Amino acid sequence: MKIARILIVDDAKFTRDLMVKAVKAEYPKFEVEVAQDGRKAQGMLGRARYDLVLCDWEMPEMSGIELLTWLREEEDNRNRDVPFVMVTSLGDKEYVLEAAEHGVTDYVTKPFNNEQLSSKVTKYLVKQGIISKTELAEQLKKRDRMLGGGGTANVLTQKQGMPSGSGVHSSVSHGIHPAKRVRGKAMLLFGTEKLPVMIRELSTQEVVLMLRTDMSLPAMFQKVTVGFLAGQGDNQQRLSTKGSVIMLQALEKRLDAEVVYAGIRFTDLDDKSQKTLSRIIGLMSH
């Protein structure tokens, strides 16, 4: 396993120590550095290369969102594209979307436990090739033996986003209009991908889609477009709307899970589009 360098940014020493302990418990050989605010972290990010940043949102001098914004705009900074995980108690979707707008990679909501944090670390180091899939498999087997079996697939299949703690069955129920379990299809567009998908839940604020894992999957906070079509003839309703991915969750907690739920928060619905979407929900609910 390669040696990774991780930067932890938090103004509370107690929280910094907890995060260092969580990382070191799983990866004792990793280099873990700390900064007590965004201003100090800014200087450190300008001097050295890191493989991952774990950062609090609310800090004096320079907040986490200000640090993130600065980093993503620094074209000559070697850390410009480093995975940046926000660790914060600000779990409302508005904050999640704001962080997504500024280029955050992922989100951990306080309070967290060691497994939740180390799983995030593992996830992004695997993506960068610092931890190989063989090493990951061995690590999961070891964790499984320690825990007495079960739950090891959480590293790759745990629910991401939707920090309110709702399950999939109610994860789209926070808008003005409650979500409905519907039967219908949609088109999901991101990058060069155009994927036919099934709808699980739909409201005028959000949608949960069912994707096969053999498809190209969107990333957390990625901007996407969702196309809806319902009804026939003169009663047919069409709508295409933009949104951001705020939840990813495997249907089964297994490394070979075949279905992933993707929760998408709509970002550009005007009154006319919301009325059209309400009619689509009505047609798909019958």
TrEMBL record:
<dbReference type="InterPro" id="IPR001789">
    <property type="entry name" value="Sig_transdc_resp-reg_receiver"/>
</dbReference>
<dbReference type="InterPro" id="IPR011006">
    <property type="entry name" value="CheY-like_superfamily"/>
</dbReference>
<keyword id="KW-0597">Phosphoprotein</keyword>
<dbReference type="Pfam" id="PF00072">
    <property type="entry name" value="Response_reg"/>
</dbReference>
<feature type="compositionally biased region" description="Low complexity">
    <location>
        <begin position="165"/>
        <end position="175"/>
    </location>
</feature>
<protein>
    <submittedName>
        <fullName>Response regulator</fullName>
    </submittedName>
</protein>
<feature type="region of interest" description="Disordered">
    <location>
        <begin position="157"/>
        <end position="176"/>
    </location>
</feature>
<feature type="domain" description="Response regulatory">
    <location>
        <begin position="5"/>
        <end position="125"/>
    </location>
</feature>
<dbReference type="GO" id="GO:0000160">
    <property type="term" value="P:phosphorelay signal transduction system"/>
</dbReference>
<dbReference type="InterPro" id="IPR050595">
    <property type="entry name" value="Bact_response_regulator"/>
</dbReference>
<feature type="modified residue" description="4-aspartylphosphate">
    <location>
        <position position="56"/>
    </location>
</feature>
